[in-house]
UniProtKB/TrEMBL annotation:
Top-level division of the source organism's lineage: Bacteria
Keyword Transmembrane among record annotations: yes
Entry keywords, A to Z: Membrane, Transmembrane, Transmembrane helix
Annotated region (Disordered), positions in chain: 47-71
Protein name: Cytochrome C oxidase assembly protein
Organism: Thioclava dalianensis
Entry's transmembrane regions: 18-37
Keyword Transmembrane tagged: yes
Length: 71
């Protein structure tokens, strides 16, 4: 015995599911687009691996003791 008519609940549920599907599809599209833009740009891709990155460290200050002895 199949149900031939959709009730109001089924129609509302379908529209909510379709809306959520569109939101999820838009989110996936944004993430995909950002990924493609990052890869095509070619920047350095450094991961967080619990090591200090030398590219973000400030330059080492000059040692004043060594400068005085070189004369």
């Amino acid at each position: 015995m199949a149900i031939t008519r959709d009730s109001d609940l089924h129609i509302r549920r379908f529209s909510r599911n379709a809306g959520l599907g569109l939101v999820l599809l838009a989110f996936v599209g944004i993430v995909f687009g950002l990924t493609i833009a990052k890869v095509e740009r070619g920047d350095k891709m450094e991961a967080y691996d619990h090591q200090p990155r030398t590219s973000v460290l400030p330059p080492a200050p000059a040692d004043p003791a060594k400068e005085g002895t070189a004369q």
